[in-house]
Each structure stands twice: as structure tokens, then as C-alpha cells.
């Protein structure tokens, strides 16, 4: 498949705001923690880059200073050149927001799986028809509307089962067992493991048996950032990402719900949320 270079979902400014919200930190508190003035903090919060202030603020937010500075200074380039040819990114819109769903199929039996529904079914239906694929099941990373909005319509057309974490059961979806395992063919397997934080029932799907492993992470993790995590789950959510996603093989492709795909190696090296 062709490699699309798309902008990051989050800038350095978004990273700061997500960290502040996740820790319930106000500008006055950050000024005290970082020995900066509130004016310095407010300048950054307005999106004005100032290296010295950003370097001093990052540790107070629990962010890696050099990674955050690199994100602010260097234009983003993260092509992933070796995507399995039986894995397709389907980018649609939910209102004015780009959202990804993903299509995986077996070249042996032409069975296919869909991960999240996105905001439109047209691209999915075109791919199924063009490649003569038979869709077998729908797997949902979490229940936020931009990821499940077309579930009912798709099920009305196909009658297919859908699966989601038991903490976020919605109409038409079954509860995933904790250690769910699905075989698409004799080589390709899909394992689902729990990655709550952004949402209470977040699931990551690990696709094995392809030319390269893939983890479909929903909104748990973005390239160089994370999905927003509420304060009550912030620290545990970061720990779960670190322990369950960033410990996957370094070559694993990370396929998020928004923004460009990335890899475990790239996020371990350059994501400011993880040291």
C-alpha cells in the first residue's frame, strides 16, 4: 500500500495541555514547581514556543525535556515503509475530525476483519468489493462515538458480530474475554489485551503472523503523544501504555485512531510522555 505522510494529531502544545489536564495542574502550581513566572507559563499555554521555558516546565509535568523540545523544533517525518500488503488504513471523517479504522484480510481465504467503524462505510465497502473479501467480524477499540458511529448501519447490512471490552458494552457488541484470541487463518492471529486510560474499557489488538506485527491501539497512544486521559486514570493509564504497548517488539507498527501510524521503537525513542 502507499505510504501517506500526515501531520501529527498533537503538537508540543497539545502534549503540554494533555499533561496538565491529566494531573489537574494549574498555571500557578506549575510556576511554583518549575521556578518560572506565571507569565512564562501563560506564554507557552498560548502556543508561543520558548525553549528555555519549555525545558524548565517539562520535568514539572513529568515529560521528557529533550523529547518535548525535539517535537517542538523538528518537522515531523515518520514514514513506515514496510506495512503488510493485507492491512488497509481507512480514513474517514466524524464531523470535522479525521478518524481511522483498519481492515485486515487473509490472502489465503479472503476473510477480513474490521477494527472500529470510522465515520463512513463507503471506503470499507469499496475495499471489500474490489478485493473480493468476506468480512467476518468487527472489533472495537473503545466506545467513543467517532469509533463506533457506523456499527449499527454495518450490522444491519451484514449481520456481523462485534466485540468490545466489557467495561464499555454498547448495543450490538459482545463482551471480549480478558485473553481473547482469534485466528483469521492458519497463520494470522489477533490477540486483544486491556489498555484502559483514555477510556475505561480500551483494548489494543495485536496482529501476529503478518510480514510485520501490528498493534491497533485506538486512542490509547498517538504518534509522539497519547489520547487524553482523565485525571483519575492518568498515572495508571501511562503505566499501562508503557508496560503493555511499548514492551511489544520494537518493529511493531502502532495503528492509532487518529494521526499517523508509528512504531514501538519510534515512540520509545521520541514520545515525551515516556522516559
Summarize the topology.
Layout lengths: L11 H12 L3 H8 L3 H8 L5 H11 L3 H9 L13 E8 L2 E9 L5 E5 L6 H10 L2 E6 L5 H4 L2 H8 L3 E3 L8 E3 L4 E4 L5 E6 L8 E6 L5 E5 L2 E2 L2 E2 L7 H12 L7 E4 L5 E2 H7 L5
Parallel strand pairs: 3-4, 4-5, 5-6, 10-13
Antiparallel strand pairs: 1-2, 2-3, 7-8, 8-9, 9-10, 11-12, 13-14
Describe this structure in words.
Helix content is 32%, strand content 24%. It is an alpha/beta fold and 275 residues long. The protein folds into two domains: 12-73, lambda repressor-like DNA-binding domains (434 Repressor (Amino-terminal Domain)); 87-270, Metallo-beta-lactamase, Chain A (4-Layer Sandwich). The strands form three sheets. It has a six-stranded mixed β-sheet, covered by helices on one side. A six-stranded mixed β-sheet has the order 7-8-9-10-13-14. The chain has a two-stranded antiparallel sheet with strand order 11-12. β7 (180-183) and β8 (189-194) form a beta hairpin. It is elongated and about 60 Å long. The model has no long low-confidence stretch (mean pLDDT 95).
The shape, in one word, is elongated
CATH topology of the largest domain: Metallo-beta-lactamase, Chain A
Instruction: Give the second-level CATH assignment, the architecture of the largest domain.
Output: 4-Layer Sandwich
Number of structural domains: 2
Average of the residue pLDDT scores: 95
The CATH superfamily name of the largest domain is Ribonuclease Z/Hydroxyacylglutathione hydrolase-like
Strand content: 15-25%
- Straight-line distance between termini: 33 Å
**CATH class group of the largest domain:** Alpha Beta
Low-confidence stretches: none
The number of E-state strands comes to 14
Number of helices: 10
What is the assembly state of the chains in this entry? Answer: single chain
Helix % is 25-40%
